[in-house]
Amino acid sequence: MTDDLRYVYAVCRPLAAPLHADLTGVAGEPPRQLAHEGLVAVVSPVPERDFAHEPLRAHLEDLDWLAATARAHQSVVAALTTVTCPLPLRLATVFRDDSGVRAMLEDESERLRRILDRIDGHVEWGVKVWLGDSGDGAGGADGGPEPSAAQPRRVPESGRDYLRRRRAGNAAREESAARAEVFTRRLHGDLARYAADARLHPVQSGPLTEAGSGRNILNSAYLVPRARSEEFLELIGRAEGTLPGLRVEVTGPWAAYSFTDGPDGPEAGGTP
Questions:
Q1: What is the pTM of this model?
Q2: So where are the chain's domains?
Q3: What pLDDT score was predicted for residue 207?
Q4: CA–CA distance, 216 with 53 (Å, rounded to integer)
Q5: How many CA atoms lie within 13 A of 71 on its CB side?
Q6: Which of 95, 99, 222, 243 shows the greatest Cβ crowding within 10 Å of its Cβ?
Q7: How far is it, in rounded angstroms, from Cα 59 to Cα 51?
């Protein structure tokens, strides 16, 4: 249709084979390859009524619409990652028509080629470390669990005993946090040596943190050669369980969302 715009998922080198016929992207449309001087933009048509500037700005405030669009975007990028090393673009990157996409490829050619050369043969792995909740502050007024009806209440402790117990608890938490910091620093250093590049993202807190998951103390990404991914994961496996109260979470392999530009952070992509 003439009022369709062009949604761009990623830029890559020419693919050896067409995209899977059953693959669909944003707005339920199958993506296609748009080639220009040795670069390929993976695009699909999207309706102007949803993706022109004003309606798009309104849609981005709709969390359900945003989540569905992000899932469709990621499904295309993930499919590309199985056959090449794509440079993912930001969610809702839209151009007027094919000519606009080609102009982008022309104008950004040097930067795009530089990034594609750097990420070629690599995938991104995400690693988070969580420090388990201590449980302090829950339950009764003295910080312990409320006794059940079948349990006798403890004899009230003196103020001096209460303060001594609180100081001991604080010291234990501080010691646990210090051990956790040493663990995460060592783990990040070891993983970075297996990677071509690494990024430390801000730790997660607030609504991004699942209830009961503990405190996020490491949120990192690593650009790892595909051929070394198994070794990379084995290193994480050996580190898991070595320090009680810590949980290591691994995600991937992803397209190189965190490594789409220089060391100051991504311009074209964003962490999944």
A1: 0.78
A2: 4-119, 122-256
A3: 56
A4: 36
A5: 8
A6: 222
A7: 9
